[in-house]
Design a protein that fits this description.
Length: 268
Protein backbone atom coordinates (compact mmCIF):
# COMPACT_ATOMS: atom_id res chain seq x y z
CA UNK A 1 0.00 0.00 0.00
CA UNK A 2 2.79 2.40 0.99
CA UNK A 3 4.59 1.54 -2.22
CA UNK A 4 1.49 2.34 -4.27
CA UNK A 5 1.06 5.70 -2.54
CA UNK A 6 4.73 6.49 -3.11
CA UNK A 7 4.40 5.67 -6.81
CA UNK A 8 1.30 7.86 -7.13
CA UNK A 9 2.96 10.76 -5.34
CA UNK A 10 6.06 10.44 -7.50
CA UNK A 11 3.90 10.40 -10.64
CA UNK A 12 1.98 13.46 -9.45
CA UNK A 13 5.17 15.39 -8.71
CA UNK A 14 6.57 14.43 -12.10
CA UNK A 15 3.36 15.53 -13.83
CA UNK A 16 3.41 18.88 -12.05
CA UNK A 17 7.06 19.30 -12.90
CA UNK A 18 6.42 18.58 -16.57
CA UNK A 19 3.38 20.87 -16.62
CA UNK A 20 5.38 23.67 -15.04
CA UNK A 21 8.16 23.15 -17.56
CA UNK A 22 5.68 23.22 -20.44
CA UNK A 23 4.03 26.38 -19.09
CA UNK A 24 7.40 28.05 -18.66
CA UNK A 25 8.38 27.10 -22.21
CA UNK A 26 5.04 28.39 -23.48
CA UNK A 27 5.58 31.64 -21.60
CA UNK A 28 9.04 32.03 -23.08
CA UNK A 29 7.72 31.40 -26.58
CA UNK A 30 4.92 33.92 -26.11
CA UNK A 31 7.22 36.61 -24.76
CA UNK A 32 9.19 36.49 -27.99
CA UNK A 33 6.18 36.60 -30.28
CA UNK A 34 3.80 39.43 -31.05
CA UNK A 35 0.69 38.87 -33.17
CA UNK A 36 -0.98 42.05 -34.40
CA UNK A 37 -4.14 42.28 -36.48
CA UNK A 38 -4.40 45.12 -39.00
CA UNK A 39 -6.13 46.33 -42.13
CA UNK A 40 -3.78 46.22 -45.13
CA UNK A 41 -2.98 49.87 -45.93
CA UNK A 42 -1.32 51.64 -44.26
CA UNK A 43 -1.49 49.66 -41.02
CA UNK A 44 -0.12 46.27 -42.08
CA UNK A 45 2.36 47.99 -44.37
CA UNK A 46 3.79 50.00 -41.45
CA UNK A 47 3.89 46.94 -39.20
CA UNK A 48 5.82 44.98 -41.81
CA UNK A 49 8.21 47.91 -42.10
CA UNK A 50 9.31 47.49 -38.46
CA UNK A 51 9.56 43.68 -38.35
CA UNK A 52 13.34 43.71 -38.51
CA UNK A 53 13.57 46.41 -35.83
CA UNK A 54 11.59 44.21 -33.45
CA UNK A 55 13.50 41.09 -34.47
CA UNK A 56 16.68 42.83 -33.37
CA UNK A 57 15.11 42.99 -29.90
CA UNK A 58 14.18 39.31 -29.94
CA UNK A 59 10.53 39.87 -30.86
CA UNK A 60 9.00 37.99 -33.79
CA UNK A 61 6.16 40.10 -35.22
CA UNK A 62 3.35 38.33 -37.06
CA UNK A 63 0.90 40.54 -38.93
CA UNK A 64 -2.60 39.18 -39.57
CA UNK A 65 -4.57 41.16 -42.12
CA UNK A 66 -8.29 41.85 -41.83
CA UNK A 67 -10.63 43.53 -44.30
CA UNK A 68 -13.34 44.64 -41.89
CA UNK A 69 -13.61 46.77 -38.76
CA UNK A 70 -15.24 44.25 -36.39
CA UNK A 71 -13.26 41.00 -36.47
CA UNK A 72 -9.96 42.51 -35.26
CA UNK A 73 -11.56 43.55 -31.95
CA UNK A 74 -13.39 40.24 -31.58
CA UNK A 75 -10.14 38.35 -32.16
CA UNK A 76 -8.26 40.54 -29.68
CA UNK A 77 -10.84 39.96 -26.94
CA UNK A 78 -10.69 36.21 -27.64
CA UNK A 79 -6.92 36.23 -27.20
CA UNK A 80 -6.15 35.32 -30.80
CA UNK A 81 -4.19 38.57 -31.15
CA UNK A 82 -1.83 40.45 -28.86
CA UNK A 83 -2.88 43.79 -30.33
CA UNK A 84 -4.61 45.35 -33.30
CA UNK A 85 -3.97 48.45 -35.35
CA UNK A 86 -6.78 49.79 -37.53
CA UNK A 87 -9.13 52.02 -35.51
CA UNK A 88 -9.48 55.34 -33.74
CA UNK A 89 -10.69 56.03 -30.19
CA UNK A 90 -14.27 57.08 -31.13
CA UNK A 91 -14.72 53.76 -32.94
CA UNK A 92 -13.29 51.78 -30.03
CA UNK A 93 -15.75 53.53 -27.73
CA UNK A 94 -18.74 52.79 -29.96
CA UNK A 95 -19.16 49.27 -28.51
CA UNK A 96 -19.62 48.64 -24.78
CA UNK A 97 -17.73 45.33 -24.75
CA UNK A 98 -14.79 46.77 -26.68
CA UNK A 99 -14.64 49.78 -24.41
CA UNK A 100 -14.81 47.57 -21.29
CA UNK A 101 -12.18 45.04 -22.35
CA UNK A 102 -9.80 46.90 -24.66
CA UNK A 103 -7.60 49.98 -24.34
CA UNK A 104 -5.52 52.27 -26.51
CA UNK A 105 -1.80 51.68 -26.07
CA UNK A 106 -0.56 54.52 -28.29
CA UNK A 107 -1.43 56.56 -31.38
CA UNK A 108 0.43 56.52 -34.68
CA UNK A 109 -1.27 58.39 -37.50
CA UNK A 110 -4.36 59.99 -38.98
CA UNK A 111 -5.93 58.96 -42.29
CA UNK A 112 -7.94 61.99 -43.43
CA UNK A 113 -11.48 61.09 -44.49
CA UNK A 114 -12.43 62.36 -47.95
CA UNK A 115 -15.32 62.85 -50.37
CA UNK A 116 -14.66 61.21 -53.76
CA UNK A 117 -16.47 60.94 -57.07
CA UNK A 118 -16.03 59.36 -60.48
CA UNK A 119 -18.53 61.84 -61.95
CA UNK A 120 -17.69 65.20 -60.42
CA UNK A 121 -14.65 67.45 -60.47
CA UNK A 122 -15.59 69.40 -57.34
CA UNK A 123 -18.19 69.30 -54.60
CA UNK A 124 -20.02 72.29 -56.08
CA UNK A 125 -21.13 70.08 -58.98
CA UNK A 126 -23.39 67.99 -56.73
CA UNK A 127 -26.86 68.28 -58.28
CA UNK A 128 -30.27 68.30 -56.66
CA UNK A 129 -31.14 64.77 -55.53
CA UNK A 130 -27.59 63.46 -55.96
CA UNK A 131 -26.69 60.22 -54.19
CA UNK A 132 -23.92 60.17 -51.59
CA UNK A 133 -22.59 57.02 -49.91
CA UNK A 134 -21.23 57.17 -46.37
CA UNK A 135 -19.91 54.54 -43.90
CA UNK A 136 -22.63 52.66 -42.04
CA UNK A 137 -20.82 52.29 -38.69
CA UNK A 138 -21.81 54.85 -36.03
CA UNK A 139 -18.58 56.79 -35.63
CA UNK A 140 -17.41 56.91 -39.24
CA UNK A 141 -20.92 57.70 -40.45
CA UNK A 142 -21.09 60.66 -38.10
CA UNK A 143 -17.57 61.64 -39.07
CA UNK A 144 -18.60 61.66 -42.74
CA UNK A 145 -21.60 63.90 -42.06
CA UNK A 146 -19.42 66.28 -40.02
CA UNK A 147 -17.03 66.46 -42.98
CA UNK A 148 -19.91 67.36 -45.33
CA UNK A 149 -21.14 69.94 -42.85
CA UNK A 150 -17.66 71.51 -42.61
CA UNK A 151 -17.73 71.88 -46.40
CA UNK A 152 -21.12 73.64 -46.28
CA UNK A 153 -22.86 70.82 -48.15
CA UNK A 154 -25.32 69.97 -45.33
CA UNK A 155 -26.19 71.21 -41.86
CA UNK A 156 -26.77 69.01 -38.82
CA UNK A 157 -29.19 69.49 -35.94
CA UNK A 158 -27.76 71.30 -32.89
CA UNK A 159 -26.02 68.78 -30.65
CA UNK A 160 -25.51 66.19 -33.38
CA UNK A 161 -21.96 64.98 -32.93
CA UNK A 162 -19.71 62.03 -33.66
CA UNK A 163 -22.60 59.59 -33.91
CA UNK A 164 -24.79 61.71 -36.18
CA UNK A 165 -26.89 59.87 -38.77
CA UNK A 166 -28.72 61.07 -41.88
CA UNK A 167 -31.78 61.56 -39.62
CA UNK A 168 -29.82 64.34 -37.88
CA UNK A 169 -29.52 66.39 -41.06
CA UNK A 170 -31.40 69.67 -40.60
CA UNK A 171 -30.23 71.52 -43.71
CA UNK A 172 -30.01 69.72 -47.05
CA UNK A 173 -30.31 72.36 -49.78
CA UNK A 174 -29.54 69.92 -52.60
CA UNK A 175 -31.84 67.19 -51.28
CA UNK A 176 -28.97 64.74 -51.27
CA UNK A 177 -29.89 61.07 -50.91
CA UNK A 178 -27.64 59.14 -48.55
CA UNK A 179 -26.69 55.48 -48.84
CA UNK A 180 -25.08 53.88 -45.78
CA UNK A 181 -22.64 51.11 -46.75
CA UNK A 182 -19.93 49.07 -45.08
CA UNK A 183 -16.75 51.12 -45.14
CA UNK A 184 -14.83 48.58 -47.23
CA UNK A 185 -17.50 48.71 -49.97
CA UNK A 186 -17.39 52.47 -50.46
CA UNK A 187 -14.66 52.61 -53.14
CA UNK A 188 -16.62 50.08 -55.21
CA UNK A 189 -19.76 52.19 -54.84
CA UNK A 190 -18.30 55.09 -56.83
CA UNK A 191 -19.76 53.67 -60.05
CA UNK A 192 -23.26 53.65 -58.54
CA UNK A 193 -23.43 56.94 -56.64
CA UNK A 194 -22.56 60.54 -57.40
CA UNK A 195 -20.07 60.71 -54.54
CA UNK A 196 -18.87 58.74 -51.53
CA UNK A 197 -17.14 59.59 -48.28
CA UNK A 198 -14.32 57.05 -47.93
CA UNK A 199 -11.94 56.23 -45.10
CA UNK A 200 -8.31 56.95 -45.90
CA UNK A 201 -7.08 53.36 -45.75
CA UNK A 202 -9.77 52.08 -48.11
CA UNK A 203 -9.17 54.99 -50.47
CA UNK A 204 -5.46 54.11 -50.60
CA UNK A 205 -6.22 50.42 -51.20
CA UNK A 206 -8.44 51.44 -54.12
CA UNK A 207 -5.63 53.44 -55.70
CA UNK A 208 -7.05 56.83 -54.74
CA UNK A 209 -4.77 59.60 -53.54
CA UNK A 210 -6.66 61.57 -50.86
CA UNK A 211 -4.70 64.76 -51.46
CA UNK A 212 -5.05 64.63 -55.24
CA UNK A 213 -8.36 62.85 -55.81
CA UNK A 214 -10.70 63.97 -53.03
CA UNK A 215 -13.29 66.71 -53.52
CA UNK A 216 -13.26 67.48 -49.78
CA UNK A 217 -10.59 66.28 -47.33
CA UNK A 218 -10.49 66.19 -43.55
CA UNK A 219 -7.80 68.35 -42.00
CA UNK A 220 -4.60 67.01 -40.47
CA UNK A 221 -5.83 68.16 -37.04
CA UNK A 222 -8.47 65.43 -37.04
CA UNK A 223 -9.18 63.87 -33.63
CA UNK A 224 -9.48 60.45 -35.28
CA UNK A 225 -5.95 59.24 -34.56
CA UNK A 226 -5.38 55.60 -35.49
CA UNK A 227 -4.24 53.65 -32.44
CA UNK A 228 -2.69 50.35 -31.43
CA UNK A 229 -5.17 48.59 -29.14
CA UNK A 230 -4.54 45.86 -26.55
CA UNK A 231 -6.50 44.08 -23.85
CA UNK A 232 -6.90 46.30 -20.80
CA UNK A 233 -3.98 45.98 -18.41
CA UNK A 234 -1.50 45.09 -21.15
CA UNK A 235 -0.65 48.62 -22.24
CA UNK A 236 2.81 48.33 -20.65
CA UNK A 237 3.63 44.84 -21.91
CA UNK A 238 7.33 45.04 -22.94
CA UNK A 239 6.46 43.82 -26.43
CA UNK A 240 3.88 46.61 -26.83
CA UNK A 241 6.36 49.20 -25.58
CA UNK A 242 8.89 47.92 -28.11
CA UNK A 243 6.24 48.14 -30.85
CA UNK A 244 5.46 51.71 -29.82
CA UNK A 245 9.13 52.66 -30.07
CA UNK A 246 9.40 51.03 -33.50
CA UNK A 247 6.19 52.45 -34.99
CA UNK A 248 6.78 55.94 -33.59
CA UNK A 249 10.30 56.24 -34.97
CA UNK A 250 11.80 58.72 -37.40
CA UNK A 251 12.14 55.86 -39.87
CA UNK A 252 8.39 55.35 -39.90
CA UNK A 253 7.62 59.08 -40.03
CA UNK A 254 9.91 59.50 -43.03
CA UNK A 255 8.30 56.50 -44.74
CA UNK A 256 4.80 57.91 -44.13
CA UNK A 257 5.75 61.32 -45.51
CA UNK A 258 7.51 59.90 -48.56
CA UNK A 259 4.96 57.22 -49.38
CA UNK A 260 1.67 59.03 -48.80
CA UNK A 261 2.57 62.73 -48.97
CA UNK A 262 -0.23 63.97 -46.74
CA UNK A 263 -2.71 61.15 -47.33
CA UNK A 264 -1.48 59.65 -44.05
CA UNK A 265 -0.26 62.00 -41.33
CA UNK A 266 2.04 60.91 -38.47
CA UNK A 267 1.00 62.25 -35.03
CA UNK A 268 4.35 61.79 -33.25
Amino acid sequence: MKKSITVLLTAAVLLLSLTGTAEAASSRDTSGRLVVGATPVPHAELLNLVKDDLAAQGITLTVREFTDYVTPNTALIAGDLDANYFQHIPYLGSNEEWEAKLASAFGVHVEPLGLYSNRLKNAGELKDGASVAIPNDPTNGGRALLLLQSAGIIGLKPGAGLTATPQDIAVNPKNLRFRELEAAQLPRSLGDVDAAVINGNYALEAGLNPVRDSLVLEGADSPYVNIVVVQKGKENDPRILALSQALRSQKVKDYINKTWAGSVVAVF
